[in-house]
Amino acid sequence: MAKQKTMSGTPQRRVGTILGTGFFLILSLIIIFPVFAGLLASFRPGTQLIRRGLAIDLDISTMNLNNYTYLFSGNADSQKYFMWYKNSLVITVVSVALTLLICYFVAYGLTMYEFRFKNALFTIVLATMMVPFEILMLPLYKEIIAFKLIDTYTGVIIIGLCGASTIFFFKQYLSGLPKDLLDAARIDGCNEYKISVKIILPLAKPAFASMGILCAMGSWNAILWPLLVLKGANKFTLPIGLNTLLTPYGNNYDVLIAGSMFGILPILVIFLIFNRYIIDGMTAGAVKG
Amino acid sequence: MDINISRVPAERQASSFKKDGVGFMKFKKLFYSQKVAPYVFVIPFILSFFFFWVYPLITAFTMSFQDIGAIKSEWIGFANYAKLLKDNVFHIAVMNSCKYMFFTLVLLIPFPMLFAVLMDSHLVKAKGVWKAVLYMPALTSVVISGTLFRLMFTEYTTGQMNMITAALGLGTYKWLKMGWSGMVALLIVACWRWTGVNMLYFLSGLKSIDSSLYEAADIDGASGWQKFRYVTLPLLKPTTVYVLTISVYAGLSMFLESYMLWAGNSSPNNIGLTIVGYLYKRGIEKNDMGYACAVGVVLLVVALIINFVQLIFNGTFKKEEQ
Asked: What global pTM score does this model have?
């Protein structure tokens, strides 16, 4: 909120800036705290976690890289961990690529043409968002068993390919493009499908970036559905695998804590690079409501 | 998918259409026409909609009236629902989910809104950094963040939460073993995860407010509070309604946070059990799908009613009529 009074008095304004910025600094420190504590803990033996909980201990002399060398040592635990890592990567890459393409084409159809069921279909897209996934979970589980897709990556990926929010975002973005482009391309002899791929798709690159990152995050972190579908330990994704390490006996907390920290890394890197696109994509639905 | 066919040069297509009305050509012409193309584009959604939405939704309803056995299932009418009415554990789960939803609404709408207003002012420097940091929790998997918080809420005196409460002179607690403190733990995790996300929603809402309105308010001599009350708040309403709607769903269907905080789906005296947790317990762990689907149907009905009332109350439907 613009406060005119503080604009005039410089010392007052400086105090306001310090308070405002300081507030977010403190809030940010609180938010970072658990992850920072986890990072510190990952440099100490996992048995400490069970005995002391997640305690902040800045004493560098007791820290070492043993958990990480163990994680990368190539032994049985390490192989298992990187198998989960690889599974997560494969599922994320395939599902993001397919989801983006399918949702783009669906949104393209819903935006660029006038046809009989257009509005009804778009209402349906929005309506699917009104039912929490958890209600469909059990019937979907039975369905996936019936399709013999249980314990397969296909079973994990297939149900999310037409995400309503992704379609919605693409539609919002495509609505902003001039439709004259289509007519111009048609006159030049382009057919409908070629236009969607060669002309419009390149223009929608920012939308692909936004949605790609959001979908990747969702897929990398997904738990509930993979937990149901994937049965064999060699098929587990990273979150599911890490979850199995969380036993009361805690014999694997070394791998758990170091693996957790290393598991945040890819998403964190992507986020730091593309952070602008993420915010665009995430907040698209909030303004128009 | 249709790219292969589309590689055929347009002129050749046009000439081949002229030749004669062979069935295939007719089909091809139809396929490329502007009338049919939109349907081709939306086919994946229609398929997905029927297979992964309509069918499971109907099945959820029909299964809730059945006793699902391994070999055969039989219709038992409302027996599952009658059982739910008398099931104390289910009542605990509903209470927990509703409480959780209520408190997340209280904590995760006003505060992120105020933070967003502050962030939008010129009083804050290095905005990009704070936005990125506040959004970070949403990036971390619930498995990881839940594990970290579980360790922080340990009952030992060395855990963070106990160190904080001890430093404030409040003593130490067995956080994850008592009803109220278990709920506090869940809410702290929720605030940690969603404050930044909701703040970003409100920020994008604030960006869409025309700044000339504030200038006009300034000319009229409005105070900071008056500007917030009579300009910001009403114009932020679409965003608030959106956040409210998704928060109702997210609150009622919360499961994973509790699943991770108690390292599995069983908390002492069910203090962390939620509706979806109970659905999971019955359907997956105890393989009583029919009963679990009845739980799901109750969840859907409760969520729809709350959001319907909320949307009517906020005048969303009225606006569409105008």
From this structure: 0.86
